Amino acid sequence: MHILLSNDDGYLAPGIRALWNYLQARQDVTVTMVAPDRNQSGTSSSLTLSNPLRLTAHNNEVYSVNGTPTDCVHLGLTGVCKQEPDIVLSGINEGANMGDDVIYSGTVAAALEGRFLGLPAIAVSLASLHGKPVEHYDTAVKAVEELLKKIKQYPDNGKMILNVNVPDVPWSSIRGFWVTRLGQRHRSEPVIEDRDPRGRPIYWVGPPGEEADAGEGTDFYAVRQGFVSVTPIRTDLTYYQVLNDTVAWLQS
Ligand code: MN
């Protein structure tokens, strides 16, 4: 199995290092890492179009790129890998990517880009439970190990991406895997305004909103209950259920 590994926290981040160390040690896996040279969290599916991308080769099939996660996977699949990988893995992200956060996520974006280019893809995030910094990357690695055992039977219909969120607890405390849907958040908190040393206003993007739809069946709920959340997502954003209503509205 040949895996293209990427992330949005940067190629030196502890999450991607943990996953790389694990994959590298496996005899049956070859792994190519193409990841951003710095933290690119929150960049979503952006491509760098007005500047050149620079690829830096490190040891052992590890490459960093001065670009976004999407740039990395794009470059990895169309320029770096001599042989097409079997799957794209993105992560392990430092922090959850659940509910509406998925729209902004560079971790999920790397997986989406793999999917756009024809490959099965899995995004993996380590979810802090009480606002504390995450620490149990080994738990997320174990979750990936379990998923890879089943990867031959992966129902690859050419559309699906798996968005995986792992609670930040020891593996022995994980209660199992739970297939979920994306929850939803309330509207984000407002921006935080401050002043620069010259007295001009500056702004920081504020925290996300509170969980709104976080009941049973959602990713939020599963992770809070100690389960690894597995949400199948797809790139087609069409809202099929309202196609007919939209036609009726236009004709009214
Ligand atoms: Mn990140």
Structural account:
The strands form three sheets. Strands 3-4-2-1-5-6-7-13-8 form a nine-stranded mixed sheet, sandwiched between helices. The protein has a two-stranded antiparallel sheet with strand order 9-12. A two-stranded antiparallel ribbon has the order 10-11. The chain contains six helices and 13 strands. Helix content is 25%, strand content 27%. The protein has 252 residues and is of the alpha/beta class. The chain has helices spanning 14-25, 69-80, 106-116, 137-149, 219-224, 243-251, and strands at 2-6, 30-36, 55-57, 62-65, 87-94, 121-127, 160-167, 176-179, 184-185, 192-195, 201-204, 211-213, 227-234. Helix 3 (106-116) links the parallel strand 5 and strand 6 (121-127). The termini are far apart. The model has no long low-confidence stretch (mean pLDDT 95). The structure holds manganese (II) ion. Manganese (II) ion binds at residues 8-9, 41, 93-94, 106-107.
Give the overall shape, derived from the CA principal axes: globular
- Total number of beta strands: 13
Q: What Rg do the Cα atoms give?
A: 19 Å
How are the strands of the biggest sheet laid out side by side? 3-4-2-1-5-6-7-13-8
What's the average pLDDT?
95
The helix fraction, in percent, is: 25-40%
Overall structural class, as computed from helix and strand content, comes to alpha/beta
Bound molecules: manganese (II) ion
N- to C-terminal separation? 55 Å
